[in-house]
């Protein structure tokens, strides 16, 4: 069976990449757009790359306070937890009203936010989960800011937090909330 579907991937900085004007029917991002340093410019550039009435589909984190995984990591990091650097905030598009305004200003309408309440899985065992969490930019920066002894104690707190969310059946799982955002490019 042929669907007549052509898929093309573009790799580039969405804020400045020269996409083919009105050359796409849909733009999809899974946990990437919240790292734009200039979301208004990026979404305007994406809108220009989409045909009129084409779809934009995004999956982004809801605000920090709605995500158990983020709160738990920050609690384990304690005083070493730092706010994300500009352009590196995984929750920058979590405010639905503000994000809808950005998309509206960039040329999108019919914006919808669907609550996605699914667990985040960090691995089948504690070592794998700890490696994932230690690999997060904010976690590694926090650990690097500590003395060797403080860092070791903080890593142990991270391990204990992950162990509290471990089961033989599921591995390490924490609660999370995301937005599935859909919008259409204006005519």
Show unreliable segments. none
Counting helices, strands and paired strands, the structural category is alpha+beta
Main sheet record: 4 strands, mixed
**Euclidean distance between termini CA atoms:** 32 Å
Number of spatially distinct domains: 1
Spatial strand arrangement across the major sheet: 1-2-7-3
CATH class: Alpha Beta
Discrete helix count: 6
- DSSP strand content: 15-25%
Round the Cα radius of gyration to an integer and report it: 19 Å
**CATH superfamily (homologous) name:** Vaccinia Virus protein VP39
Shape: elongated
Looking at the structure, the CATH topology is Rossmann fold
Element-by-element helix/strand order: EHEHHEEHHHEEE
By DSSP, the count of extended strands is: 7
Mean pLDDT across every amino acid position: 94
* Level-2 CATH architecture: 3-Layer(aba) Sandwich
Helicity range: 25-40%
Summarize the structure.
With 187 residues, the protein is an alpha+beta fold. It has one domain (24-185): Vaccinia Virus protein VP39 (Rossmann fold), CATH 3.40.50.
Report on this model:
The chain is of the alpha+beta class and 187 residues long. It has a single domain (24-185), classed as 3-Layer(aba) Sandwich (Rossmann fold), CATH 3.40.50. Helices cover 35% and strands 25% of the residues. The chain has six helices and seven strands, in the order βαβααββαααβββ. The chain has helices spanning 39-49, 68-77, 96-106, 126-135, 137-144, 148-163, and strands at residues 24-30, 50-61, 108-116, 120-123, 166-167, 171-174, 178-185. The strands form two sheets. A four-stranded mixed beta sheet has the order 1-2-7-3. A three-stranded antiparallel beta sheet has the order 4-6-5. β5 (166-167) and β6 form a beta hairpin. α1 crosses α3 (96-106). The model has no long low-confidence stretch (mean pLDDT 94).
């Amino acid at each position: 069976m042929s669907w007549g579907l052509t898929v093309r991937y573009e790799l580039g900085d969405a804020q400045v990449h020269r996409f083919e004007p009105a050359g796409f029917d849909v733009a999809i991002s899974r946990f990437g757009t919240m790292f734009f340093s200039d979301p208004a410019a990026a979404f305007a550039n994406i809108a220009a790359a989409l045909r009129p009435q084409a779809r934009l589909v995004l999956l982004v984190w809801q605000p920090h306070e709605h995500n158990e995984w983020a709160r738990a990591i920050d609690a384990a990091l304690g005083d070493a937890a730092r706010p994300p650097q500009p352009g590196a905030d995984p929750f920058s598009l979590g405010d639905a009203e503000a994000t809808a305004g950005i998309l509206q200003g960039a040329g999108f309408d019919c914006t919808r936010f669907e609550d996605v309440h699914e667990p985040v899985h960090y691995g089948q065992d504690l070592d794998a989960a700890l490696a994932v969490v230690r690999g997060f930019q904010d976690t590694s920066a926090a650990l690097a800011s500590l003395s060797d002894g403080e860092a070791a104690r903080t890593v142990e707190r991270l391990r204990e937090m992950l162990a509290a969310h471990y089961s033989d059946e599921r591995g390490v799982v924490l609660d999370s909330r995301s937005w599935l955002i859909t919008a259409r490019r204006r005519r």
